[in-house]
Amino acid sequence: MIIACGARTRALVFVLLTSTLLLVIALCHKRGGRLEPLQRPTGPPRPGNGPQPSIRPAPDNATNTSGKQWSSVWSRVPCMGPRGFNIDEANNDTLSESIINGLEYPRPFVGSHEAVGLSQTWMTAAARYGPYGWGDDQMEKKAPWNEVDWAKLQNQCIHSNAHGFHDATMIRPFGRRFRMREPGEEIKSPVIEPQAADYVPRTAIVLRAWEGYNYIAKDLANLRATVAETALRFGAEYTVYILVDVKDTGRNIFANDENYRRAIEELVPREFWGMAILFDETLLKSWYPNIKTHGATYQIMQPLQLFAHFYPEFDFHWQLELDVRFTGHAGRYLTALSDFARKQPRKQAIERSTWYYMPEFHGGYSDLLGAVNASLEGRGGLGWGMRIQDFEPAGPKPPVKDPLADNFEWGVGEEADLIAFTPCAYMPSLKHWVWRNWQQGLKAGTKTPGWMCQPAMGRASRTLLLAVHHAQAVQGIAMHSEATLSSFALWHGLKLVVPPHPIYQDPQWPRSKMNELFNGAGAVEAHRTQGMEGMAYGDAIYRQADYEYIATSASFWYTSDFPNRIYDAWLGRGGSQGGDSSSLEVPYVLWKSRDGEVYAPNMILHPVKTNQNRPLDSSGDPPWLVIAGVAVSLLGLSAAGLWWWKRRSWGRYSAVRTEEVGK
Asked: Where exactly are the transmembrane stretches of this chain (predicted)?
């Protein structure tokens, strides 16, 4: 018995120690197999002792994006800013962007300013946020921000420009348009209504917030900038709302007006009260009772779907998180993305949406279009007349039966139903995305082709959102948050575009390797994997777990800390650790002049966390892997110690028994 027990224990210890050793080897191998970054980052040159680059104001044609001229009879009426001046006239209510001669613009990791139509301007944080209260403690004339009512300013702007809109419905401060679903309430299938040529489509910018969000000075300056640079600067073509997730259902926000108003006053800064909209889980359950879960991780689009249902005056909806930052003019950036999307053809749009555009390998964006077309041999791709079993598509039918007869004309000049921020991935081929098989209600189950576009932000048409709303509320069909809009756009034959906006990377790796990892090996024309013809297929996307450390080095990626480092250095804190930035090196994408001013290029950052809203550092190996390694190691050491201690006891016990037997 003693010998058998010892053998089992020794076997257990052997297994534990072997597992620990194998895990350590795996971790070391994983680190040893990591790509080596470039020794010196490529970016703007550091001026030495020679002449300093010259800084001059950006000309109007580099900073003003007017967008499409929707009607010859409509012209924007300037709108009043928070200090009582028209937003186009007062120097303290407009931005001062700069062109820096003699300084090379930083080269993005993917994307292109030229391709999207973004200006290559520079800005300091003071110029960017000064008009919106950043540094007010150092100004002689401060704006009384607690007295500013951004909903009122937006309504004045809507009223002044009402002649340009088909429906000029204004913001209703504290008004509860969201309501519970009535028993047996009918929900109609979405129908595409052609955009009236004589009217400007209205776009809602919906900023996602939640109960407990900690608004600090930087958040407030960013919110003010977003409203001023979109709604007020573009003549009410945009309207900005804050959509607040009320976690405490005990507030009973839909019981009466008083509860609703009290929650807004407690959860949202005063100057934004009028543009706040509240929802909670009880509302989502009321409208989507057959969906398994309503949390933001799985169904972040459900509140936006209800917004489209209850706010019919809007044609399009940008959903942005509060941790998004524009280092340049927010309105011009968003307008450039929508202008780019409008110019794109429908043919092969889904296939193009999978590519990480790198000009040094793909040429101009039109060259990428041609290369994808070659890989598809001129066919229409998945977006040409696709059908699934669950419903009839809401989108238009192709103008010609044979896609070879369409010379990339269909869809040009048509607004996109979905504008995503990063390329999409074909779900059936994903290896490491944990939600790749999460779906509900589809007749073909996981065999239904789906698409995932991270993160769950972008611009969606009312048609697309109502299509998802109907499928979830009536049919109980659902996909994961990051696959919802892209998959439904595909199924309904709606236009999907991923503008190749510039994204930076730190540390930087060899670009040829990045092209291979994000797009796949070989020329674009050679991408003809069955079922994925014309699509990018890189391991960094389809096997994310193995290359997480690369994805988390991007200036736009939901788990990256690089945006924080850029933003902190730009605002003068010298990096994420805080402190004076005057003597510290800034990230390569920024430029610090001889007098200590830090300039940022025109880009979008995500995520930028502030104070309590900032997560723990996620760099390096996944936390679960580190924790598992430590746990197994400790378990192995504990077992080894126990085995050693018991072995000593067994020896003493055997000796005593021998003596007793001898007696």
From this structure: 624-645
Please enumerate in sequence order all residues whose Cβ is within 8 A of that of 192, keeping only pairs 6 or more positions apart, or say none: 394, 395, 396, 463
- Residue ending a domain, choose from 596, 613, 630: 613
How far lies 118's CA from each of 115, 214, 365, in Å? 8, 32, 14
Predicted confidence (pLDDT) per residue in 253-279, tens digit: 999 999 999 999 999 999 999 999 999
pLDDT of residue 67: 47
Contacts of 284 (CB under 8 A, 6+ apart): 294, 299, 302, 303, 306
Report how far residue 168's alpha carbon sits from residue 159's, in angstroms, rounded to the nearest whole number.
7
Residue 4 has pLDDT above 60, yes or no: no
Strands 598-601, 122-124: pairing is antiparallel
Q: Which of 534, 186, 491 is nearest to 352 (CA)?
A: 534
- Whether 230 maps to a domain, the answer reads yes
Mean pLDDT, rounded, for 52-72: 61
Q: What's the pTM? A: 0.86
Query: How many Cβ atoms are within 10 Å of 86's Cβ, its own excluded?
Result: 14
Q: How many Cβ atoms are within 10 Å of 446's Cβ, its own excluded?
A: 13
Report the amino acid identity of residue 241. Y
* Of 90-94, 140-144, 328-332, 363-367, minimum mean pLDDT range: 90-94
Instruction: Give the span between the Cα atoms of 390 and 388, in whole angstroms.
Output: 6
Residue 68 belongs to domain spanning:
54-143+551-613
- The enclosing H or E element of 346 equals none
| Distance in angstroms (rounded) separating the CA atoms of residues 412 and 138 | 50
**In whole angstroms, how far apart are CA 658 and each of 3, 46, 614, 662?**
15, 83, 66, 6
Residue 646 is assigned to a structural domain of this protein: yes
Return the SS3 of 164: helix
Count of beta carbons in the 10 Å neighbourhood of residue 274:
22
